[in-house]
Amino acid sequence: MNRVKKILGLVIFVPLAVVLIVLCVANRQTVTLALNPFRPDDVVLSLSAPFFVFLFFTLILGMFIGSFVTWLSQGRYRKQARTEARAALKRDQDGGRKPAAQPAGAALVPAAKG
Predict the structure, then answer these.
(1) Does residue 28 contact residue 42 with C-beta atoms inside 8 Å?
(2) Which residues contact 51 (CB under 8 A, 6 or more apart)?
(3) 59 vs 51: CA distance, rounded Å
(4) Is residue 84 part of a domain?
(5) In-domain check, residue 87
(6) Maximum Cα–Cα distance for the chain, whole Å?
(7) Hey, how many other C-beta atoms are within 10 angstroms of the C-beta on 23?
(8) What domain count does the chain have?
(9) Which partner for 53 in 20, 48, 49, 69 could form a disulfide, CB atoms 3.0-4.6 Å apart?
(10) pLDDT at 44
(11) Tell me: the pLDDT tens digits for 9-42?
């Protein structure tokens, strides 16, 4: 499984890196990002940089936003894990362990004769 992940990562990330490098080389000219839609020539609210800088900034910003949204959406699972960990610690500190619950289908399977 680890080998498959490594190969899949190479198949995805190597072409992506090649495309980004080609875009960087092709887009080295300076462009101006105007943040004032009413006066685009306003120097105070404009930013001039090579176009690939804006591409990389957008890519990194998208990665951070996606990571944050994923972190927020997985909050209930982290809360459940904390709750279960506290319950396990409390159970261990009380000294007694409750018998392990049987899986739902375990009662239907007859015990093996030995």
Answers:
(1) no
(2) 27, 28, 29, 30, 31
(3) 13
(4) yes
(5) yes
(6) 87
(7) 13
(8) 1
(9) 49
(10) 87
(11) 888 888 988 888 888 888 888 988 888 888 888 8
